[in-house]
Design brief:
The complex is a heterotrimer of chains A (about 300), B (about 575) and C (about 600). Chain B contains 17 helices and 17 strands. Chain B is α+β, with helices and mostly antiparallel strands. Chain C has one domain. The longest helix of chain C has about 35 residues. The relative contact order of chain C is 0.10. Classes of the chains: A mainly alpha (about 300), B alpha+beta (about 575), C mainly alpha (about 600). Strand 1 of chain A pairs parallel with strand 1 of chain C, so a sheet runs across the interface.
């Protein structure tokens, strides 16, 4: 297949694949959590069922303006587009369209769209939720991006294909291992999972940024969230533990690693109580220091 | 009346006489450890000061009475407790039958605020000089000049709902107003907190409760017999109903001078401790849920489940055990039941220990609780807070030790306190108490084993003596439950006043939300007093036949609830 | 210098607009025209009724001419003269609202600061002339090279003076402290030009003297000066970002954002200087990023200031708290504001991403500790720009109850906003085209077109170190939405509008529980106050630190007090207004410069 044809095929198929895979992680994560809580838990397809149910509900909107109406679509589109740029099975058909920085920024767009939706209208819950979402973004984005930059620095490129290839060729270095650990730990916050779900915090803000959304818009926001989980875990796997396998085998190996990583995150998420924003800051600043260590090693060439 | 009890009542009566001086009109000691002092209306504040500030008595509640039927006027009782002396006393203030009013004691005791407003709302007794005279108990729209607890108000009367509503405090400029409730995920019952926040920091609060006021006192006084009230009392709370029925029957027994058989007293203690154990485990789950820690929530409720099955096996019911009658209890704990208790306890204790160890090791969790919701011992005294809320601030107030009832004088247990004065302190106290409860349950089983079966109810005369008073406290999981009963001329009480611990504890929450507290800390601080608060403010009605839809507001729902018919649609929205 | 040419012809020969100058001149022309279209209805407001429009337009014309002359001057003296005209004319514009005491004070602070800077520039130029004997830019490199070889200390003094002059104009911390005061005072179209392009002329100075001149003449010295420049950029970008997030006044927010964006550009230029000797390819990326960001921020920031002006025009306030829910009432302003806010937040596929992304490659991939640190600071500054952009947009247009009524601004104002929004979109989707053009503006052969990798498409940018094709991302996003729409099924009926319920009652238009200034308050508290704290409050700092970092107190306060005293004295002497004094000063400066020409001839 010529690169151009490959790009076109992936442009058409990729989004469908990413859209389809995301909600499975939700069912999986909830199953893991239920088992830890001595419960049976929902079926693995609960994520899809939830979306289907929400999609059939009547739309009630408290805020009627085009930007708020577009926010859920933007959140989903940005997250899926980020996913299409990530290598799969050693191939990056759309590598020319965006590198690692673009992927992280698109995930940021997705998070910001949620905040924009939350900051619309008169609900104080939504407002506080949006404020928290963005503050968390400020804390976590530099840490996660920094960890990826460490590998980029060593590989001499931000192209995801190039970074994975370098990681494969040079094996894990002190810097990339430290950065990988920092990224892995910060991922919990990046994904907005329990200890860091401050912006939704049911018990404090009754759903926070999403409080005024229901039906289809809420389904789209949820879908965007699932996709963000998938893409973020996937890009961490591809950059820090790339598989030498190629083709379908490589894709399967990566998918397996994504599931393992997400499972571990779900366990952590179950066993940690929600943090207050100041605790989250202290935690992320510590992870940030780990990331700076990684940079130090990377600059020294280790 | 034991000699010790007579001695200390003498001692307290002596100090009351000297403290009240010329304000004291009459002193009455109808039962062991109970003193009633009559004081004049104009001397009531001075008398309250002498008791609260001079003798360091703990404020319990104020009770209003309508004695016009007996040829007297209105009356207000300010109830206090001298915990160290194990004596309860009340200041009786007689008021005029036509235009009753009484000076406010809230400036002296902030914790008396709700009690006074309730007397004003329900009896129409004016409160002079109350700092926040907005209506408290009566629903929005209820007329201002109708007072439901007066004897001339029929229990089933429905006055027109065209009266005033309770206003809220407006938010200070530049702040965001966050409204928690009336429905809110962590408030299991309706109540509304308005938080005025600058960013995430709280600069002020306003509270509105009494959404689910059920007028049970009126019902009991107007319609029910002594033993029917027990069922009603049991249902005051869905988690710790037994404390209410126990407190009520003990107040009646005290007023009638009945002696309850020892086995019945042990069984009361046993059931009360079983209730406390399950309630604390329930609370632990909810507190962790509030903190977003659902793992502990699920596990703690799983650990609690065998206790509920046990309760069902013993009493026939998971909740609302309904064990009490006036003069004793209705069932015995058999040898098989005793075995089962011990068995269940072993499992529950082991699993709770493991859970607590995990909790205490979670630094992030402990940090979220420590130094948040600060509540100093002086604030405890001023607010009249009780139970773990007070003990978490190092104040060892516990009705089981201070005013022993049931079989607590035979049981060996610790009053668990913690000096943290914060949410963590209150958590530690509850965990400690859960283990103490398990210990007491074992002791109760041991006591039951060594005494003969049977003899569960005292001989109760056909008619109880009229217009005798009893005031009795039971240590509920949330603190002291206090019931005041005045016997009536028929087969039911003339006056029954219930004060749940949350009545005082919720009043103290704004004190705990010190400036600088963040929104994230509010639910857990509120949860830390384990508030015990049902009603609908808003309801959407779908008419599938006509394919129409209406959203009812608070007023329309009240109309619907009272008339049973859909109110007419108003055009102006 | 003696030539055969008569002075006037000689003067004309000293103008030349090279590609670098054009990169600044074209945005200048565009912004000056757009702002001029916007201005008439804006100045027709009640509060400007008592001001002279003639004075405004004269100063505006001089201001525009001054800026164009500054970038087209091929002679040190002309450069200084144009710079002075630009500064004085802009002072008159900032002080347009003479009836407002605050405006006059802010304008005076601006005057004092920029004139201190001008003095530095004049001194530096005098030193260069004295040393090199030539005033033309043609001889600049020779002069600089000679200085580097013979009198390095003097060279550093000259460069230091230039640094102060340009950094002040560019709004770098702490020298750019005039921005948060001048902008709220100035009329919106003036703010737009001021922040959109005049601040960038300061950056032009850096590129012209440090990159074009110094890097070619004395690379080692240039690399050394790259460090302070990058450092000033980092500090400005991060502190400016924090301060913008904490601001509740639209124009103050945008002023701090100008400081932050200027900081980013300075960071790029500094990184380019540092990297030039060892990593020319990365240096080129950093400089290209900086230049692209300069052009893109010119359009974006100008548009944002126009939006702030439109909001003030309709709501009568600059406070975000007084706005909210305006989307329906001002749709055109809202949509253009959305484009600008998303662009300044750096969201792909919009403009600011491209510049930041190139600078990120240039800094991080160099592997130099300082520049990697600069890269991380750039990340933090980028996230901060997301925060304040969303705060600005949602605070003004989304948050709070929906505002009813048609409050859209007059066609000329709306048209100006739309024009800038179109420019932003054009810059966004075709980054390759513009980067190709800008690479021609970089001085070769070190940085210039020769070093540009071939094969950059119009729509895609793909250096070896990264890749970015904005239009393809849009296509993928649109395709995703289509797929999702199929997946969740067609909507059976339009969503039903309901009211927001809280606390058992619906929130009406009169009851707004939300206050935009409450946004990010935790940050204000937790991040230690950042810029705003350094300026105004003693938050967790030893007592001696605060006054020493409080630029306002130790420089401008006394200077302004002294200046006002002199102004008052002059007023008494001349029985005229402060403005007449300024005009006298302008004439004086003109006379001085004419004298210099005569002396030279």
């Amino acid at each position: 297949m010529s690169p151009a044809l490959g790009a076109v095929v992936w442009l058409l198929l990729g989004p469908a694949l990413v859209l389809a895979a995301g909600p499975w992680l939700d069912g999986f994560g909830r199953r893991v959590r239920a088992r830890l809580e001595s419960r049976r838990g929902p079926p693995m397809v609960q994520g899809y069922l939830d979306l289907a149910k929400l999609a059939t509900k009547e739309g009630l909107v408290a805020v009627t303006n085009p930007v708020t109406a577009a926010a859920p679509w933007v959140a989903l589109a940005a997250a899926v587009t980020a996913g299409v740029l990530v290598p799969l099975g050693g191939a990056t058909p759309l590598g020319f369209a965006g590198d690692m920085v673009v992927v992280l920024y698109l995930l940021g767009v997705s998070a910001a769209a949620v905040a924009l939706g939350g900051a619309s209208g008169a609900s104080a819950y939504g407002f506080l939720g949006a404020s928290r979402e963005l503050l968390l973004l400020l804390l976590v984005e530099p840490v996660v991006a920094g960890a990826f930059l460490v590998v980029g620095l060593q590989a001499g490129t931000f192209r995801l294909g190039g970074m994975a290839a370098w990681e494969l060729a040079h094996g894990p270095t002190v810097a990339s291992v430290l950065a990988g650990v920092a990224a892995g730990v910060a991922l919990l916050a990046y994904l907005g999972r329990v200890p860091f779900d401050l912006s939704e915090a049911e018990q404090e803000l009754t759903g926070g940024a999403l409080v005024e959304f229901g039906g289809r818009p809420l389904a789209l926001f949820r879908w965007a969230l699932f996709t963000r989980w998938l893409v973020a875990a996937w890009v961490v796997v591809e950059v820090f533990v790339p598989t030498p396998l190629r083709g379908p085998a490589g894709a399967a190996a990566s998918a397996g690693l994504v599931v393992v990583l997400f499972g571990v995150l779900s366990v952590l998420s179950t066993l940690i109580a929600r943090l207050r924003i100041d605790q989250a800051r202290v935690f992320l600043v510590q992870i940030g220091l780990l990331m700076l260590f990684a940079f130090t090693f990377a600059v020294m060439g280790a | 009346m034991t000699t010790m009890s007579i001695e200390r009542t003498d001692r307290v009566a002596g100090s009351l006489v000297s403290a009240l001086g010329e304000h004291l009109l009459h002193l009455d000691r109808p039962a062991p450890d109970r003193i009633y002092c009559d004081v004049a209306r104009d001397a009531s504040v001075a008398a309250v000061k002498a008791l609260f500030e001079g003798l360091k008595a703990r404020y319990v509640i104020s009770v209003g009475l309508d004695r016009r039927g007996e040829g007297a006027g209105f009356e207000v009782l300010h109830c206090f407790a001298m915990d160290e002396e194990h004596v309860r006393c009340a200041l009786r203030v007689a008021l005029s039958p036509e235009h009753p009013s009484i000076p406010s004691i809230t400036p002296v005791i902030p914790g008396a605020s709700w009690a006074e407003l309730e007397i004003r709302d329900l009896f129409g007794i004016g409160i002079e000089g109350h700092p926040d005279p907005r209506r408290l108990v009566l629903p929005d729209g209820f007329p201002d000049d109708v007072h439901p607890l007066r004897k001339d108000f029929p229990y089933d009367a429905k006055p027109p709902l065209d009266g005033p509503s309770r206003p809220f405090t407006p938010a200070p400029p530049g702040t965001t107003e966050v409204r928690l409730g009336p429905f809110f995920p962590v408030l299991e019952e309706p109540s509304q907190w308005r938080l005025f926040v600058d960013g995430e920091r709280i600069v002020g609060t306003d509270y509105r409760g009494f959404y689910s006021h059920r007028a049970i006192e009126k019902l009991a006084e107007a319609k029910l017999s002594y033993n029917q009230v027990i069922s009603l009392a049991e249902r005051i709370c869905g988690i710790c109903g037994c404390v209410h029925s126990t407190s009520y029957v003990q107040a009646v027994e005290e007023a009638a001078g009945l002696a309850v058989p020892r086995r019945a007293r042990v069984i009361r203690s046993l059931v009360l401790e079983l209730e406390r154990l399950q309630s604390h485990l329930l609370w632990l789950g909810i507190a962790c849920h509030i903190l977003g820690f659902d793992f502990v929530f699920q596990q703690s409720w799983r650990v609690r489940e065998p206790l509920m099955t046990l309760a069902e096996a013993l009493t026939g019911s998971r909740k609302h055990f309904q064990v009490n009658v006036v003069g004793g209890v209705t069932f015995d704990v058999t040898a098989a039941g005793q075995e089962r208790i011990l068995e269940t306890l072993t499992g529950v204790e082991r699993e709770t220990s493991a859970l607590v160890k995990a909790l205490e090791g979670d630094q992030a969790l402990v940090q979220r609780l420590q130094h948040v919701g600060m509540f100093t011992p002086e604030e405890v005294r001023l607010s009249g807070a009780v139970g773990p809320t007070a003990r978490g601030s190092g104040v060892p107030v516990d009705a089981r030790k201070d005013h022993p009832y049931a079989a607590y004088d035979e049981l060996d247990f610790q009053v668990v306190t913690h000096d943290g004065c914060d949410n963590w302190g209150r958590t530690v106290v509850r965990i400690g108490e859960a283990f103490e409860s398990a210990k007491m349950l074992r002791q109760c089983v041991a006591l039951l084993r060594e005494m003969p079966e049977g003899g569960l109810v005292a001989d109760v005369p056909d008619r109880l003596p009229p217009f005798r008073e009893g005031m009795h406290g039971v240590e509920a999981p949330r603190g002291e439950v206090f019931h005041y009963v005045r016997t009536g001329s028929g087969n039911g009480p003339d006056r029954w006043r219930v004060r749940a611990p949350s009545y005082q504890n919720i009043q103290a929450v704004p004190t705990m939300l010190k400036p600088g507290t963040t929104v994230a800390d509010v639910p857990i601080t509120l949860g830390s007093v384990d508030p015990c608060f049902s009603c609908t403010e808003r309801m959407e009605v779908l008419d599938l036949g006509a394919r129409t839809r209406r959203v009812l507001d608070a007023g329309e729902i009240r109309e619907l609830a009272r008339s049973g018919r859909m109110p007419p649609e108003r055009s102006a929205r | 210098m003696v030539t055969a040419l008569p002075p006037l012809a000689q003067l004309l020969a000293q103008w030349r607009l090279d590609a670098l100058g054009a990169a600044f001149a074209i945005p200048t022309v565009v912004l000056v025209v757009v702002a001029a279209v916007y201005a008439p209805p804006y100045l027709a407001q009640e509060r400007y009724r008592s001001e002279s429009p003639r004075r405004f337009w004269l100063a505006y014309a001089l201001f525009a001419a001054g800026m164009l002359a500054a970038v087209a001057a091929w002679d040190l003296l002309l450069f200084v003269a144009s710079w002075e005209v630009m500064t004085l004319a802009s002072y008159v514009l900032v002080a347009h609202e003479t009836s407002e005491a605050g405006a006059t004070r802010a304008a005076f602070k601006y005057f004092v600061m920029t004139h201190a800077a001008s003095a530095c520039l004049l001194l530096a130029v005098m030193l260069l002339w004295a040393e090199g004997g030539a005033l033309g830019f043609d001889g600049l490199r020779t002069t600089l090279a000679a200085l580097a070889a013979d009198r390095p200390l003097l060279l550093h003094v000259v460069l230091g003076l230039l640094f102060i002059a340009f950094a002040t104009k560019a709004g770098l911390y702490p020298l750019g402290d005039w921005l948060p005061d001048a902008h709220p005072a100035a009329p919106a179209p003036v703010s737009a030009v001021l922040s959109g392009i005049m601040v960038k002329i300061g950056l032009y100075g850096f590129v012209r003297f440090f990159v074009w001149g110094l890097a070619a003449a004395a690379p080692a010295v240039a690399a050394a000066w790259g460090y302070p420049l990058a450092a000033a950029g980092i500090v400005s970008a991060v502190l400016g970002g924090f301060a913008a997030c904490a601001a509740g006044d639209t124009k103050v927010l945008l002023a701090y954002s100008s400081i932050a964006q200027s900081g980013l550009i300075a960071l790029g230029i500094g990184a380019g200087l540092v990297l030039a000797p060892q990593h020319p390819a990365l240096a080129q990326l950093a400089l290209l990023g900086a230049l692209f960001h300069t052009v893109s921020d010119a359009a974006v920031k100008a548009l944002l200031f126009l939006v702030a002006g439109s909001l003030q025009y309709r709501t009568g306030s600059r406070r975000l708290d007084a706005m909210g829910g305006l989307f329906h009432a001002m749709p055109v302003t809202a949509w253009t504001a959305l484009a600008a806010c998303l662009a300044i937040a750096g969201f792909p596929p919009l403009t600011a991403f491209t510049g930041k992304w190139l600078m990120l490659q240039g800094t991080v991939l160099s592997g130099s500790a300082l520049l990697v640190g600069a890269g991380i600071a750039l990340l933090v500054a980028s996230v901060l720009s997301i925060l304040y952009a969303l705060k600005f947009f949602s605070g003004a247009f989304l948050a709070g109850p929906v505002r009813a009524g048609a409050l859209e601004v007059p066609a000329a104002m709306a048209g100006a906003q739309v024009a800038l929004a179109v420019i932003i979109l054009a810059l966004s989707v075709t980054p390759g085209l513009w980067l190709g053009l800008l690479s021609g503006a970089l001085p070769g052969p070190t940085f210039g077109a020769a070093a540009v990798p071939s094969g950059w498409g119009v729509f895609a940018v793909g250096p070896v170190t990264g890749s970015y094709a904005p239009l393809l991302l849009v296509v993928a996003g649109a395709w995703t939405c289509g797929l999702a729409m199929v997946a969740i099924g067609r909507r059976r009926k339009a969503p039903r509008a309901v009211r927001t319920w809280m606390g058992g009652s619906a929130l009406g238009a009169s009851l707004a529980p939300v206050s935009a200034s409450g946004f990010f308050v935790p940050m204000r508290e937790q991040m230690g106050g950042a810029y705003a704290g350094l300026r105004f409050h003693a938050v967790r700092m030893p007592a001696w630190v605060v006054p020493s970092v409080n630029v306002d107190r130790w420089v401008f306060g006394p200077a302004v007090r002294a200046g006002l005293g002199v102004g008052a004295a002059l007023q008494r002497m001349h029985t005229g207004t402060a403005h007449r004094y300024i005009i006298w000063q302008l004439l004086g400066a003109a006379a001085l410069i004419t004298l210099l020409f005569v002396v030279r001839a």
